[in-house]
C-alpha cells in the first residue's frame, strides 16, 4: 500500500471515529435535555408526550391536598389562563406553598395529570423564574386578546 493510501485510510478512520463520538455526545445531550412549558402550552399539546419536561406557574390557592402517607401531595399549577393537576411524592421545599411560584419536573400520565419527581420553589418573596414569568405574561396577553375579540362580536 502506498503512503498516500495509508494517509487517506487514516483520515477516513479518524473522521469515522469523530462522527461516532459526535453522535454519542449529541444523543446524551438530547436525552438529558429538559424543556420548560406553562400550563397553557401543555393544554395546547406543545409538551412532549413521553418525555420529561418542566411545568411552571403558580400553585393555585386552595388546591393543595396531602394524602395520609404524608409524602404524596396533590396540587394544581396555573398560569392564570389554564391549570394542570400535579401529583408529587417526596419532601417539598420549605418555600413551597399556595399562591407561590413553582417549577415541577416530570411527565404527563394518560389522564392528563402531571406526575412530578422534582419540585422547585422560588427562593424569596420577589423572585419568580423567568420562564414562569414569561409564560404568565403570554397567558395574560392571550386571555385579554380573547376577551377583546369576544366583546367586539
Could you give the topology of this structure?
Elements: H1 3-32, E1 36-37, H2 39-43, E2 53-59, E3 65-66, E4 72-78, E5 83-89, E6 101-108, E7 114-121, H3 130-151
Parallel strand pairs: 1-2, 5-7
Antiparallel strand pairs: 2-4, 2-6, 3-4, 4-5, 6-7
| Largest sheet: number of strands, sense, barrel closure | 5 strands, mixed, barrel
Helix content: 25-40%
List low-confidence stretches. Answer: none
Average predicted local confidence, pLDDT = 85
Order of helices and strands: HEHEEEEEEH
Q: What do we call the CATH homologous superfamily of the largest domain?
A: Nucleic acid-binding proteins
In DSSP terms (H or I, runs of 4 or more residues), the helix count works out at 3
| CATH fold type of the largest domain | OB fold (Dihydrolipoamide Acetyltransferase, E2P)
Main sheet: strand order: 2-4-5-7-6
- The total strand number stands at 7
The helix-and-strand class reads alpha+beta
Q: What is the architecture of the largest domain at the second tier of CATH?
A: Beta Barrel
> Rg to the nearest angstrom?
23 Å
What is the total number of structural domains?
Answer: 2
The CATH class assignment of the largest domain is: Mainly Beta
What portion of the residues fall into strands of 2 or more residues?
25-35%
The outline comes out as: elongated
CA-to-CA gap between the ends? 82 Å
Amino acid at each position: 500500500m502506498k503512503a498516500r493510501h495509508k494517509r487517506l485510510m487514516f483520515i477516513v478512520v479518524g473522521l469515522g471515529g469523530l462522527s461516532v463520538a459526535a453522535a454519542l455526545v449529541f444523543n446524551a445531550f438530547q436525552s438529558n435535555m429538559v424543556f420548560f412549558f406553562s400550563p397553557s402550552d401543555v393544554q395546547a399539546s406543545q409538551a412532549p408526550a413521553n418525555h420529561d419536561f418542566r411545568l411552571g406557574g403558580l400553585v393555585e390557592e386552595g388546591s393543595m391536598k396531602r394524602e395520609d402517607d404524608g409524602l404524596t401531595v396533590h396540587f394544581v399549577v396555573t398560569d392564570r389562563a389554564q391549570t394542570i393537576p400535579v401529583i408529587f411524592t417526596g419532601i417539598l421545599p420549605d418555600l413551597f406553598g399556595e399562591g407561590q411560584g413553582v417549577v415541577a419536573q416530570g411527565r404527563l400520565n394518560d389522564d392528563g395529570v402531571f406526575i412530578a419527581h422534582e419540585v422547585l420553589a422560588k427562593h424569596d418573596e420577589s423572585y419568580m423564574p423567568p420562564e414562569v414569568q414569561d409564560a404568565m405574561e403570554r397567558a395574560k396577553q392571550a386571555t385579554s386578546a380573547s376577551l377583546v375579540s369576544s366583546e367586539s362580536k
